[in-house]
Design a protein that fits this description.
By secondary structure, the protein is mainly alpha-helical. The protein contains nine helices and two strands, in the order αααββαααααα. The protein has a two-stranded antiparallel sheet. The chain is globular, with a radius of gyration of 19 Å.
Length: 206
């Protein structure tokens, strides 16, 4: 396992406690006061939000062993990079990756557009959003991140990235779990009713 992959993996894990503190809005305000507590939460929220993205990116691009699905492996899709490097993607990997990346990107964009960029970065919504995509699932951005991770792992054929996928999924679930504990603390029964009506990740079948 390469040094950069290991460092990126540790970074993804290290972001979790920062995120946990950033969403503990009530405790931060109680400890530091309204203005300072809010500012600390915003700063930590941006660090954890951008941090997990950058460290995930590190998982994808770090030097690592490659895997190839043993089907159509002779057919490669070649993408030139910077004019002198090429990325060779097995066609089957490319096809399968789109199955994950397309909905993942759509969920992420829809989630941000409906909750707002500021709330997405700081994990501090002013109210419970129950319309649009949030009327179907509670955490579209986290689901989008998990799907995108799988899709990009297929594109780069990253073996180590594939191995840590269950941990990446678990971490995203933990982030959602912590956020919801704090949302219940802030919004009480209103959020509990929302939890009962709308699933965390996968929409109810009509």
């Amino acid at each position: 396992m390469s040094f950069w992959f290991f460092l990126s993996f540790l970074g993804v894990i290290a972001v979790v406690p920062i995120h946990f503190v950033s969403v503990s809005h009530a405790r931060l305000v109680e400890k530091y006061g309204e203005e300072r507590g809010t500012r600390i939460g915003v700063i930590l929220g941006m660090i954890s939000g951008w941090g997990i993205f950058l460290f995930l990116f590190g998982l994808w691009v770090s030097p690592q062993a490659r895997f190839v699905i043993p089907l159509m492996q002779e057919t490669q899709f070649i993408i030139p990079i910077f004019g002198f490097l090429t990325l060779q993607i097995p066609v089957l990997h490319l096809i399968l990756s789109l199955v994950f990346i397309a909905p993942g990107a759509w969920l992420g964009i829809r989630g941000v557009s409906e909750i707002g960029l500021k709330a997405s970065e700081t994990h501090r919504p002013a109210r419970i959003i129950t319309t649009g995509i949030y009327s179907h699932i509670r955490h579209p951005q986290y689901l989008g991140a998990m799907l995108s991770h799988i899709g990009i792992t297929l594109i780069v054929s990253g073996f180590y990235s594939l191995l840590v996928t269950p941990i990446v999924i678990l971490i995203n679930w933990l982030l959602c779990w912590k956020e919801e504990k704090e949302l219940v603390r802030e919004f009480g029964n209103d959020y509990r009713e929302y939890q009962k009506a709308v699933p965390m990740f996968f929409p109810h079948r009509n």
